[in-house]
Write a structure and sequence with these properties.
34% of the residues lie in helices and 25% in strands.
Length: 404
Amino acid sequence: MGKPKVVLGVSGGIAAYKACELLRRLTESGHDVRVVPTAASLNFVGEATWAALSGNPASTEVWETVHEVPHVRIGQAADLVVVAPATADMLAKAAHGLADDLLTNTLLTARCPVVFAPAMHTEMWEHPATQENVAVLRRRGALVIEPAVGRLTGKDTGKGRLPDPEEIFEVCRQVLRRGTAEQDLAGRHVVISAGGTREPLDPVRFLGNRSSGKQGYALARTAVARGARVTLVAANTALADPAGVDVVRVGTAVQLREAVLKAAADADAVVMAAAVADFRPAEYAGGKIKKKDGEDPAPVALVRNPDVLAEISADRAHEGQVVVGFAAETDDVLDNGRAKLRRKGCDLLVVNEVGETRTFGSEENEAIILSSDGSETPVPYGPKEVLAEAIWDRVTQRFTSRRA
């Protein structure tokens, strides 16, 4: 089997220079990449750069190498087309089926998955015309990922920044793996919590846990690739924001509860993958607690934190909302998991065994997905994105069964 063929379309925005990093990641991971820039994009990155980095010719015109019929053949042969950056102009042309250069012709002839990574000023992204164009493209099956929030050109800041190229690459990798499979989360809003909460003891110390947030981030990335609108409530993670995800940063269990409840108000599914502290110090010391020679430290009194999973399960925003919990256990894993599923009242519970060197911080995971209907789905040890896909498979089954 040959290398996956990827077409990287580059339209004329200042973020075009970032596409060089996306191209590097695609080529170094074994993809055969053909860059198709627009004429405007060459004002930012020249044709020679694209050809040198990809190892393939780069052209904007349908009139070059006409005997090879490039305006048809490039799209027909592609396994994936990704346009990064996708300007407002490019989104409009794609939505209306215009074909005035090689890239727009390629988009019309492609029968593979198509990903657009928009980048533009906030006002342009929020304009009703752009939003309608995005909606049209999504209805036709294209994956239009949400732009990031951050520094734009000049002094402007807001939504419209091109997501990190590494994260766009992760979306491309997920989409290629799924192939032409339906975007079964399209039109759905999902909320995911990730990471581990920290409960302050004094200005320099806290009670926390070993959670890295990697499983929650894998859930976010796979949900984006399946077409969902994703809100990620991230507690104390050091990971880059996944492309196309609205990230809400929190620190404590109380802050996480507030963020999840707010985001869940219109969510179709809530997945509580974060390791939420069960307890917090009853009192917060305003100054650093000092060590005193010859004296033992005073005991730290603890109080219970809110049980966010149980609260979400008991008081759902609407009847069809699917709630997924996680159970990190160190012994009697299945028995404890089954008991927790009954106690929490969620639809699905992902149960895994954890330890100092197991699961936390790892790129792999192993779990059993317990369902309130009594079924159990084992997911063998492997990449966390595989477990994430299995979880979304079970969630979409819930959507289908409730609709029926």
